[in-house]
Structures are given as structure tokens and as C-alpha cells.
Write a structure and sequence with these properties.
It contains seven helices and three strands. By secondary structure, it is mainly α.
Length: about 160
């Protein structure tokens, strides 16, 4: 059942990316949609994307072990085999919304395994403790910076509303 659901989600994101919409979705829309779908904070997905690729949907990185990281969330090519069950191919990983959706699915798998904590973020990147922990610290720094910016914007908006009264 979960496999069918995941396959449908991938198809929905892929179709929406190609559908003629009145207003094209932004990458931020994709973070929101994937976050809601997989119950992970969109800002956490944004933070991972910044650490991974600086939001570059065409990013590609060749790793020393021969694998390749692809797209905005740098999905590793080692995921291609398990994702092939859902019809996911390498070319799909360069569609930003599709890539973000897959990353949210991967992160959700890590959260389900180790809990809703920074270790899940570490595992998104690497199961090697030092590499994963270093990665999680980088993502946390970006996450908390984004959170501060969001809080400051909300405070400024509230101050403007109060000043108008």
C-alpha cells in the first residue's frame, strides 16, 4: 500500500510539473507541497537544498565512490534502483519539484527509522557518523538562520499592521 501511495505521489508531482498551469509553481511551492505530503517541515527541506546545491536544480556532483548526486536536493544515484520500482528515472531528478518530493520521501524514511531529530537529517546524507553529524550541523545552521529571518519578517508585518491602526 505504501509503495502504491509513494508511486502516486511521484506521478502527481511529475504531472503537475508538466501540466499547463495558469501560474507556474515556484521551487518554494514545491517545498511546501512536499513538506505537507510527507509531513516534514518545508523549511527543513529548503535548508537541505541550500546545503546540497544552493537551490540549483541542475546540480550534479560526482562522488569518490562512483555514485552521482543529482538535482536541487542532490539525490544520490544509489537511490535509482529502489526508486525504479516507482518509475523514477535519472532524468526525473533534474525536475526540481520531483527531486524535492523524492528528497522529502527519503527524509521521511529516515525520520520513521530513527525519529524526528537531527540524526534523521544526518542519515539523509550519510550513515557514517562523523560525516552525517557534520552535515546535520550545517543544515541546522541554515535552518535556524531561515527561521530567524521568517520570525523577523512576521514581526515587521505585525508592527506595520499595528502602526496602521
Amino acid at each position: 500500500m505504501l509503495r502504491i501511495f509513494a508511486a502516486l505521489v511521484f506521478v502527481v508531482f511529475a504531472s503537475a510539473a508538466h501540466a499547463g498551469q495558469q501560474q507556474p509553481r515556484t521551487m518554494m511551492d514545491c517545498f511546501e507541497e512536499a513538506g505537507k505530503m510527507y509531513k516534514v517541515p518545508p523549511m527543513l527541506l529548503q535548508s537541505i537544498a541550500w546545503v546540497e546545491s544552493r537551490y540549483d536544480k541542475n546540480a550534479k556532483n560526482q562522488n569518490t565512490n562512483g555514485s552521482v548526486d543529482m538535482g536541487v536536493m542532490q539525490i544520490n544515484s544509489l537511490w535509482l534502483e529502489p526508486l525504479s520500482e516507482y518509475g523514477v528515472e535519472k532524468k526525473h531528478l533534474y525536475n526540481a519539484c520531483y527531486n524535492i518530493s523524492i528528497a522529502a520521501w527519503i527524509l521521511r524514511k529516515q525520520i520513521n527509522e530513527v525519529g524526528y531529530n537531527w540524526q534523521a537529517v544526518a542519515h539523509y546524507h550519510s550513515r557514517t557518523p562523523d560525516r552525517g553529524e557534520n552535515y546535520a550541523r550545517k543544515v541546522a545552521r541554515v535552518y535556524f538562520a531561515l527561521k530567524r529571518q521568517q520570525d523577523e519578517r512576521q514581526e515587521a508585518a505585525l508592527a506595520q499592521q499595528l502602526a496602521r491602526r
